Amino acid sequence: EASETLSETSQRSTQILPQTSEEPLPTSQTLSSSTLSQTSSSTSPQTLEKPSETEPEKRNEWRGEAQGAELRAEPPSTEVGRETQNKTHIQTQACISTTLETPLAPSAPALYPSLPTLEEGSLMQLHKEALRACGTRGPAVLPLGEQECPLSLEPVAFSLEQLSVWEPGGGMCVWVEGVEVCAARFAVLARQEGHELTELLQNYWRCRRQLTHAHTQLHTHTSDCNTTQNRLWSFRDEQLTLQGVCGDQSKVYGYHRFQQADFSEAVLVELRKLFEARSELLHQKVALHAYTALLSRLQVESYLHCLLHGENTLSHTLQPSSLLPLKESISVLFSFTRRVLDDTQFQTDIHLWLQRLVAVLLRVGGSGEHLYLLNHLLCCSAGVGKWAAAFLQIQVLGNASGVQQFMQALAILMSPVRHRAEFMSHMKPCESQSATASGPESGNWTLVDEGGEEDEDPESSWLLLCEEDLISLLSQFPFQQLFTHLLEMSKKGVYEPKSCSSQKMMRVFAFASSLIELLAVGLNTYDSARYRQLVKRIGHTIRMTVCYVSDHWAQYVSVAGPARPRTISLEKLQLEYDHLFLRAVLHVLRNKRLGIWLFMSEMPYGTLSSSMLWRVLYVMQCAETAAPDTLNSTDNTYTCLQALREPSHQERFEKWLCEVNSSDGISLLTALAHMAMPTHHSDPTFITTIALLVFQVSYVSVSTRETYSKVGRELLAAIATVHPYIISVLLDRLRETIETVGMVALYLSKELPLFLWRPSPEEVCVIGGWLLQHPLSAVENSLACVLLEGLDWGYTQDGTLALPSSLHSEVALLVAEAYQKYLTDKPYNGLISEGIKQVSYLASVLRLGLSPEASFSQWAWQLLLRLKLHGNTQYPQAAWSTPGSAPNPSPELTHAPNMHPVLRAVKAGLPIGCYLAIAMTTVGHSLEVFCTEGVDLLKNLIQSQHLRAAVHLLDNILPPTYPLSFYLLKNTQFVGCVQLFLQCDGVCPQGVTQQVTHRVAPLFTGGTYGDMVRLLNSVIQTHVVESSRPGRVGPAAVLEFWLGILTQQNLWYRDRTVLFLMDQICRSAFTHHQEECVQRLLYQQHKIALGYHGDRGLLSSLVGWIAGNATPSFIEGQSLSGEVWFAWLVLNMEGMFEEDSQLGRCMEHELLSDPNLSPDQALKKAQQRLKLPVAPSLQRLQVYRWACQALSTPPDHPLLPLVWQRFLQLYLRQPGPEYGLDAGGCIGRRFFQGSTQAVLLRDLRQRLQEVSDFHHAASQALRVPPTHTPSQGEDRPNSPPHLFLTSPQIHTELVRLFGVFAVWLDDETLQKKEVYLPSLPPQYDPQRLAKVMHKQQVCVSYVSYCIGG
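^ Epg5-like TPR domain-containing protein, sequence as received from the core. Prediction below:
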């Protein structure tokens, strides 16, 4: 009952501490996102259960108890400029240090080596001298109101002792001295040999051992009983054999096998004795020891209950003396955790009781209790972090002394542990155990250093702390709360750097310096292979601290304007930040186990001053070649500069890179490259030095370039991306070392961001010299090609050229001169150049295996096509003006001296000369000169298979000539050039299209369009769009020009290439509402075609028509499945001819007049009545043409609804009332009464179902839109059609539309007699049906949506 009561009381008084990990801090200003994420992941303290929380006392944030001491000082006044307050603050610090210097109890020697630079005696002496100087000569730093940096003197950085004055907590010296004070108090309080609780726990432990021993005996007796019981019965196999004689006198035999069991009386007696012994053991010893163990445990519980519920134990206002019994009991419990315990239950009870007492101590205790518990944890055996890490609870936010607790606890954790050997004496292994544990069968590991020697003493290694435990304790420190307090974020986590003053900034530097120094103590304390991961955690925290301060300093500089009043100048603050950074770097460089170079590559160099960057650069290069103590000896920037430029220094650095591990060397070079990234104090000399250093190591030095060439290329590219002028520096250095670097220079140049580079005229001359003065196989020539290829020859965001137009022209002439020098006398085939895929010059040389001449030819043409040589490309805003109106007049080909290489190439008949003559001179800028001279040059270019260059020229020449297109349309040579172009890159070779029809030609040629035809189509489409802008010629002029060009070819409608271009032109006409323009031109061509069929005259056409041949049409066959846009306009045009000739109306009248008349007979009567010399054949009638086109149009084509609409308008037409006759139903059914026409009608109905199914499936699964333009669409008649429609809503609407069309086409009642349309059910859509019967548009909205119009 007492146990149950105590348990219930404990449960009622136990609550959960709040989680110490914070939510992400919302900030109004951006810090380092990577640092914030790393902080939250690396510092995630555990929680501990304790009774309840108390309200934090309202104290000064920077003042509090000095590690549990009773001495308290009044917080200093916040007013600035009062000297008396400053003196009081100094005296308070002196008193605190005097208190901390009390004689300490003797302690065991430290297990870890002391920090050489932070020896206790020297630190105390320095601190005393500083305080004595402050008392006699005034403070090291003037009061905040009187601080001024003299303008005539250069500011000097504060020392650590001087910075401690800025830190209200006392600084590094106070934290280090506090470690000894806490250790001395802990040593006195932690020894509780004769404590009452000790006797109770020993009694309980003894009872538990007896109970365990009894249980072991009981288990042994039970095992013996089981073994004896198995011997009680013995089994053996027996067999009986029987024989007899059958009626036939045959002998028979039978066998019976069985087991026989024998009972042993002797074993029974033995078993009875064993049962009696086990029963006696169970009822006597086990029950007795279980009772005594439970009674002993209840005694411990009763003692703890009285301790926790005694007078004033749970009170919120306790004196330190009243916590003494509680702390003594905790020490007793901790002492049992330092013993070898093989009883799991006893160990669990100890941990449970510790958790209860520690929770109470944390709730009612002060700041010193955290340090007391931390010392206990550091003196525990391995594994303490798993069950006791939550005992360390430090709260910074909302706690007046939280910062002091944090820093003092961190100082204890980072310092060597005192008295651990004394407290762990019970855990020391004996000699026999040590000998056994060191054998080969033990499985124990021995840590060795890089040299293969043992890293630690085997005799004392058992005393060392476990790395996982230290990491668990370090994770309990809320660094994120500390930085939130340090940066003065609000309670809601809002970061406001504008509220930071220069004095607050100095306090941040001072506090960060102390924090870094404390962490540096840990780097030296745990400098062992055992603690490699812990050291990395500490180093990560140092870098995180520097990153936070760096971001905060950058924000302060950005918001601190020159007119903002401040007591400390920006120069002084920058100096303090620089030295803070330098101290962190030196601490990192002194620790070789940290992976220092990878660590240094992640440091924030962006806020350092230029002078400090030089010092850090020198220190980093000397870190491995100089002694650690000499790294901080150089304070002069000029001295660092001179040392870096010494050849011997460079040689030592390269020698070290050869000897060091490649990963460390790569990390060092990466760190150097990060130093050259954008900074607030950008120093071109420093950046140039870094770039040249990386270049020297990666490409010039023979001993290191094999290892570092790849990473050096990436780092130089990263530096050049931020500072493009570095490319000029590297080019100048390459010119000096090109023989040493060799072909590797090509790889470097290919990686550099040349598109950001703006070369000077001198640098262009250097590149030109490499191109002209060295053969094609030389490195200099290839390097020049790579450099010119990588420049940005395009436009900027505002539409102007990225590089000056004069540079474009200069490079073009340079390439022309080199082309003639290297390729004039060499056999060259333009087809090879056009057939090679567009790849870089370097790839063509290395991967394609081309000859130098072929690679250079390809490179030259690719570069020339990228250059903006024509006036319309140099000034795009004037491209559509009158020819010759460019701002800079074009030079004459025969008169301009600089055009001499081009003129020489033209006379030699070189295609490159023809291209440059048209692109750069008046030949391509004056319409008159182009018609007389330029057309021949263009023809030469096309005949040489340089079709891409021809398309580029047409793109530049045509825009200003569209208003004067008559001159080019009547120029037979120009028209012949276009036709030659189409024949060279079209479907059918030259001459084939005039011999076979469009159905046979694909069988010979494969039916694919060339890339140049597609490129020409893109030019046409672009011109149509550009011409529609305000103030320009308009799309009609462009469409008329290209229609006039394409239709001048004989039998053009049989050429698949021309049809492809015509289809795209018709699509543009439909999109820009220029259908009438195109139809008018096609109408004129159609009239001519009706009179002349091929090359025969009118008489031959009439004879062919009488013989049954089809009437001439631009659509060969009944329909077109690929060129639907062209078919749409052609059929509409032929419909206009049918209406103008009155043939359709006359046929309708004949059919209505005689119900028995066939369509063929009606056609003949109509021709006779109208006296037409030429009439279309029956299959050329509009109703049949639209029906066939509806069958051939792909289901996803945008024009499909309109095609079906036109067919239904003809089929459902009821013309009876127009002729004064009765409405005899739809006229369309009369055209489909024959067997052939009936099959066509059945196919139409089936096609409607297929189209509906297609769009239903498309509405369920959205299709991805094609990545190419529609001009890259239908290549082959048998290829699957490309998809135009992508929206599921439009597919759903089309399913409904085609469903209505199917209902109309299937209802014969609707077609045979006149129906009152409003009476039809909704599935007929009567309103839409009425519009179709009256030839009104009902599907234009679908098409507009599909094509984006």
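The mean pLDDT is 77.
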